[in-house]
Amino acid sequence: MSEAETSRYVRLRVDLVLEIEDADTLAAAALGRIAEDPEMRAEERAHADAAVREDGAEALAYLVDPVGLVEALPGVELAQASWSSERIGYDPDDEEWDLDEEDTNDED
After folding, report:
1. What predicted TM-score, i.e. pTM, was given to this entire model?
2. pLDDT tens across 35-91, in order?
3. SS3 assignment for 28-92
4. Is the CB of residue 14 less than 8 Å from the CB of residue 84?
5. Nearest residue to 23 (alpha-carbon basis) of 45, 48, 55
6. Domain spans of the chain?
């Protein structure tokens, strides 16, 4: 692929830290989304239900749809998408979590 072809591609990175204030409400919303998914097989649904009931991070993964954020943008076609959620240790006073600072882990 030539440089002109690859320069059309943009990687959009979004890093969110969310606090789960009501795990039951979050799980109920995720279970509703799973129940409404016509493409999910019964076996997948049972696995998803169990995962969502156990872990708020799993519930978020079923509710947050980054594809939906960009699918209606004019002049843009989604080439690839991936996302995950995980529980983390978070301290808002720790400089490591200062989102205003440039990420020092990025490649040069």
Report:
1. 0.71
2. 999 999 999 999 999 999 999 999 999 999 888 889 889 999 999 888 888 888 888
3. HHHHHHHHHCCCCCHHHHHHHHHHHHHCHHHHHHHHCCHHHHHCCCCCCCCCCCCCCCCCCCCCC
4. no
5. 55
6. 41-65
